Amino acid sequence: MTAALLRAQSTRFAGLDPLLPAAVEPPPGDLLTAALPDGERVSAVLTRTLIEPGTPQSLWSASEVFELHPLLGAADGGALDPLLRALPGRLTAAGTDTACVVTWPSRDAAAARALMTHGFIPLSVLAVRTTPPPPSDPVPGVVVRRATRADLDVLVESALAEVAYSAQVGGAIPRSDARAVKRAALRAHLTQGDPIWLAERDGVAVGHAEGWHTESRPGSWAETRVRHGRWGYVNCLSVLPHARHAGVGRALMDVAHADLSPRTVGSFLYYNPPNPLSPAFWARQGYRPLWTVWEVRPAAALR
Ligand SMILES: CC(C)(COP(=O)(O)OP(=O)(O)OC[C@H]1O[C@@H](n2cnc3c(N)ncnc32)[C@H](O)[C@@H]1OP(=O)(O)O)[C@@H](O)C(=O)NCCC(=O)NCCS
């Protein structure tokens, strides 16, 4: 059944959004099946992942994550409903630091109704850059350069400002070890040569961006999200609160995109739809939603 559903799902995804990759086999987990009113059968695999404390992921994810990987074949996202109905009985989550997650094509509008009915919210979006804006004018007084290990202290402050803001309007979790986690992650990225761009205004640090390249190839994580090829990935963009809305973010991304784009098929990133700043910012930078990550936190709030 799985192979036929995968083929049909790939065909449907391609018709829904030409930038979606072919559907790939779900990871191992618990199998759920359901019958649709017309007799068609759909299925899903439920996985459970524990996020290690002290990892970068722990700053944007609940510690215990149940993820549903639906296989709807040719059916539209409304067919999620019978699978979501079966879900509460299959979750063993207890406590508040838990989540249930479904990642589904943003353009499948019928899925949104089914997910919202069961308590899911569209907490983040994976967006791809389809329409780069024309080059913008330089921002007076702002210089963007590649950061070095000597900049670690200001990078940590900038990264923590992003966590603090995104914890209000998105999925970030300001855990007690956030400073140490960010410091270790930034140091590791600098050491392995991933680009980090630092913005200075009149010589004072006011924000930063992080990114790297990722290859979508058979068996890779990226293959589940974007078509095969080499992609630029923007991991973090932050401008300190007092410096926002003055062109610093735009100046950072002008340089970041110029550095990331050679020999790539495109670039992608995640942002939080409830964030009042970033969706408008990223749309102006030429990004549009490809996948929506629907989430219930805690998992027991699923209905
Ligand atoms: C999102 C963020 C990085 C954008 O950086 P920024 O320096 O504030 O952005 P910019 O000043 O370059 O402005 C971006 C756009 O907003 C517009 N803008 C400018 N002033 C504005 C204002 N007062 N209100 C709303 N929009 C404004 C600009 O017109 C600009 O559009 P343009 O590029 O087409 O001219 C920054 O606001 C931030 O750090 N927010 C908190 C953390 C966060 O949300 N990070 C992103 C996570 S994905």
Low-pLDDT runs: none
Q: How much helix, percentage-wise, in residues?
A: 25-40%
Q: Considering the protein shown, what is the CATH homologous superfamily of the largest domain?
A: Gcn5-related N-acetyltransferase (GNAT)
How are the strands of the largest sheet arranged? Answer: 1-2-3-4-11-5-10-9-8-7-6
CATH architecture of the largest domain: 3-Layer(aba) Sandwich
Q: Assign an overall shape.
A: globular
Indicate the mean pLDDT.
Answer: 96
- Which fold name is given in CATH as the topology of the largest domain? Aminopeptidase
Helix and strand element order: HEEEHEHEEHHEEEHEHE
Domain N-acetyltransferase: 142-303
Pfam family, one: Acetyltransf_1
Protein name: GNAT family N-acetyltransferase
Structure characterization notes:
This protein is of the alpha+beta class. It folds into 2 domains: 2-129 and 294-301, Aminopeptidase, CATH 3.40.630; 142-285, Gcn5-related N-acetyltransferase (GNAT) (Aminopeptidase, 3-Layer(aba) Sandwich). It contains 7 helices and 11 strands. It has helices at 2-16, 80-86, 109-117, 152-169, 178-191, 248-260, 278-284, and strands at 30-35, 41-50, 64-71, 98-105, 121-129, 142-146, 196-201, 204-216, 229-239, 266-271, 287-296. The protein has an 11-stranded mixed β-sheet, sandwiched between helices. Helix 4 (152-169) packs across helix 5 (178-191). The longest helix is centred in the middle third of the chain and has 18 residues, at 152-169. It is globular. The two termini are 28 Å apart. The mean pLDDT is 96.
